[in-house]
Design brief:
125 residues; 0% strand; elongated
C-alpha cells in the first residue's frame, strides 16, 4: 500500500511540477513583453530557464522515485503543462499585465511630462 501511495505522490508532484514550470515561464514571457530583447538575450534567457527546469525535474525524479522515470510521470507532467496552458495561461498573463500597467501608470505619466518639458527647453535653445 505504501508503494502505491508513493507512486500517487510522484504522479501528483509531476503534474504540479508541469504547472509550476509553465507558471514560471509565463513570468519570463511577461518580462519579455515589457523589456525589449535581442536574439542573444532571448537565447540566454531560454537556456537558463530550461537549465533550471531540468534541475527541478531531475531533483524531483531522484527524490521521489530514486531516479526511475515512469511513463505516468511523463504523461502527468505533460498533462499539467497542457492544462495550465489551456485554462490558466491567457488569464494569468492578461491579469499580470493589467496590474503592471496600473502600478507603472504614474511613472509613465511623470516621464511623459518630463519629456514634454525637455522638448520645450530644447526648442527654445
Amino acid at each position: 500500500m505504501e508503494m502505491i501511495i508513493g507512486q500517487l505522490r510522484y504522479f501528483g508532484a509531476s503534474f504540479l511540477l508541469g504547472v509550476l514550470l509553465m507558471f514560471l515561464y509565463d513570468f519570463l514571457e511577461i518580462f519579455r513583453c515589457k523589456v525589449r530583447h535581442g536574439r542573444v538575450w532571448l537565447f540566454v534567457e531560454d537556456w537558463l530557464f530550461w537549465l533550471v527546469a531540468a534541475v527541478f525535474v531531475f531533483q524531483m525524479i531522484f527524490a521521489l522515485n530514486h531516479g526511475i522515470i515512469r511513463s505516468f510521470f511523463i504523461l502527468s507532467f505533460i498533462g499539467g503543462v497542457s492544462l495550465y496552458r489551456g485554462l490558466v495561461k491567457r488569464h494569468f498573463i492578461c491579469g499580470v499585465l493589467k496590474v503592471l500597467d496600473i502600478v507603472f501608470r504614474p511613472y509613465v505619466w511623470i516621464r511623459g511630462k518630463i519629456r514634454k518639458k525637455r522638448e520645450k527647453c530644447e526648442k527654445k535653445a
